[in-house]
Amino acid sequence: MSGHGPAQVMTATKSGPLIGRAEVPGDKSISHRALIFGAMAVGETRITGLLEGQDVLDTASAMRAFGAEVTQHGQGAWSVHGVGVGGFREPTGVIDFGNSGTGVRLIMGAMATTAMTATFTGDASLRKRPMGRVTDPLALFGTQAYGRRGGRLPMTLVGAANPVPVRYTTPMPSAQVKSAVLLAGLNAPGQTVVIEREATRDHSERMLVGFGAELVVEQTDEGNVITLTGQPDLRPQVVAVPRDPSSAAFPVCAALIVEGSDIFVPGVSQNLTRNGVYLTLVEMGADITFENPREEGGEPVADLRVKFSEMTGIEVPPERAPSMIDEYPVLAVVAANATGRTVMRGIKELRVKESDRIDAMARGLEACGVMVEEDEDTLIVHGRGPGSMPGGATCATHLDHRIAMSFLVAGMASVAPISIDDASPIATSFPLFEGLMTGLGATLTKA
Ligand SMILES: O=C(O)C1=C[C@@H](OP(=O)(O)O)[C@@H](O)[C@H](O)C1
Ligand SMILES: C=C(OP(=O)(O)O)C(=O)O
């Protein structure tokens, strides 16, 4: 959906202790993939714990447009009747991915090696984001792409009628690019190889194996070498989506900076390609205990107990960036409430997310009285100490759910309230954010 609702101003006021249980929604990356892989299997895939955020709902609509039958049975309970690898039907209209980079990039890959034409668009944020990073490797399979200047949406892809397998080294750490190439490789004969120098989230690899694809990952001096054998018969699966560690970071960081807080966040994925923010918070002095570690839905999960903590700024190791790429905005808020400097390097990918997240965080934090430094690839936040961020500003969110949630978390611990100009994008990834946070004791008001 391109249209968000009307802009919704929201204000967070300094909160008393956050106390209680925070059940965060299903993982967004796994939810997209469950629908897409389910659509490419033959038979019925059953999903529980699906994230019902707008981004994932847009992927469900897209899979219907390509011919799969996608049905909701109850909260988080969905089924997908897939059409098999190469079985997509040509969509009759333009496919609108709203705010979702993952949805559009993965599905471009999924249709790229089937003889059909499809046209993609998105909201004002998605139409600014680069698609060349996906259409360049897809061209190697024989796929043609016609978009706006700079490889922007709206864009039409003509799938390769006689695809050839591809060997591709991703030029930037991106699970979306890696996954698009693997999805295209599904319908190419022979072996498609993707090499990534830095490991990114590995949900596609894990889930493709689960769906019955022949896929091997080797760790070499070049990085991870992923070899997929094309044209498998994917088998439908039962997928239990674990809770999203990126969404969990918001209540976790809020509890860490609001004095007296003590919360419990059950069943959060601790996949090593996703848990960088938790390692970083612990290094800063966060009181987080990881209880009852176990496996759920093929992913390592733990229950998190989180208490208010006095924290110290650190240098975040740049090689950790891919495992916490979506968590830098809220980490910057924690950094502002820590003592000393927090240095975040190697993060230029943040500039091509739903907004330029380095710029959005730097401008918003400055408006709230926090000193920051930035360059193309870096954000440095000078901490004010616990509960000492002045606040008292309205921060621009640029159609970016993570910027919106980050500044609301900031306002829960700042001296004066913090407003955001638009809370509506939060529904893309965390529709129940407001209720969950107010349930813990936060004060959020709509204008
Ligand atoms: O593959 C995925 O599910 C995602 C990959 C990441 O994007 P990039 O591939 O652009 O790094 C991440 O930021 C996004 O939220 C989800
Ligand atoms: C970058 C994100 O998502 P996407 O690329 O799917 O829009 C995100 O959720 O932070």
UniProtKB/TrEMBL annotation:
It is an enzyme of class 2 (transferase). Pathway: Metabolic intermediate biosynthesis; chorismate biosynthesis; chorismate from D-erythrose 4-phosphate and phosphoenolpyruvate: step 6/7. Residues 14-435 form the Enolpyruvate transferase domain. GO terms for cellular component: cytoplasm. 3-phosphoshikimate binds at K28, S29, R33, S174, Q176, D326, K353. Residues 1-20 are annotated as: Disordered. InterPro entries: Enolpyruvate_Tfrase_dom, Enolpyruvate_Tfrase_sf, EPSP_synthase, EPSP_synthase_CS, RNA3'P_cycl/enolpyr_Trfase_a/b. Keywords: Amino-acid biosynthesis, Aromatic amino acid biosynthesis, Cytoplasm, Plasmid, Transferase. Phosphoenolpyruvate binds at K28, G101, R129, Q176, R357, R402. Its EC number is 2.5.1.19. It holds the Pfam family EPSP_synthase. It catalyses: 3-phosphoshikimate + phosphoenolpyruvate = 5-O-(1-carboxyvinyl)-3-phosphoshikimate + phosphate. It is found in: Cytoplasm. One of its GO terms (biological process) is amino acid biosynthetic process. HAMAP family: EPSP_synth. Catalyzes the transfer of the enolpyruvyl moiety of phosphoenolpyruvate (PEP) to the 5-hydroxyl of shikimate-3-phosphate (S3P) to produce enolpyruvyl shikimate-3-phosphate and inorganic phosphate. Belongs to the EPSP synthase family. NCBIfam families: aroA. This is 3-phosphoshikimate 1-carboxyvinyltransferase. It comes from Pseudorhodobacter turbinis.
